Every structure is written in structure tokens, then in C-alpha cells.
Amino acid sequence: MDKLVNYRKLIQNILTDYHEWVSGSSNQNSESCLVFDEKHDHYMWIDLGWQGKKRTKNTQVHIRIKDNKIWIEEDWTEEGIANELLKLNVPASDIVLAFHPPEDRKYTDFAIA
């Protein structure tokens, strides 16, 4: 299987698992939504809701594929999407923790860019 096709599948499966887990919760005050854009390689898990009269939208996870690597732009999971990917045999050299400033990425075990 082509590497990028595999990465797309892995990302979608991970986010779907989180979405299904959260959607099954009985004390959910917001709606869990998945957004998969394979054409532009952006994958998001977001929560939509209301706080009084104010609309809320919280990005739980935003991942994109860029330059043949998985860029984790935002991640509010406890386990960490990067750890999930490592368990699925994605090499650390193909994972960018893009939520860290570029100059700080060299201190991680993951790709810089």
C-alpha cells in the first residue's frame, strides 16, 4: 500500500475511534464532528456547541499531510496522536509536532519539518 494512502487511512481510523468514543458519552454538551479532506490532506475532529447564547467550536485534533509527513497541528487528546501513530508503526521521522514552534522541534524525538 502506498505510504500516503496508508497514512490517510490510519489518521481517519484514529480520529473515528475518538469521535465514536466521545459520541457515546451520556454527558456530552456538544456535538463531535469529523472533517476529512483527502484532496488537501486535512483531517479534523472538532466539537460544536453552545454556551448560553455563544456558539462554541473547539478543535480537538487537526492533522495534515505535507511533504510526505504527518503534521500534527493541534492535539488535545490525553494519549497523544503521535503516540497512537507510533503504535501503528509510523516512524517518528515521518511525524511533525507542528504545534511546537519550529525552533523547539529539535528537542523532540520527532521530525523537525
From TrEMBL:
InterPro entries registered for this protein in UniProt: XisI (IPR014968), XisI-like_sf (IPR035943)
Coiled-coil residues: none
Pfam families in the record: XisI
Source domain of life: Bacteria
Protein name: XisI protein
Organism: Aphanothece hegewaldii CCALA 016
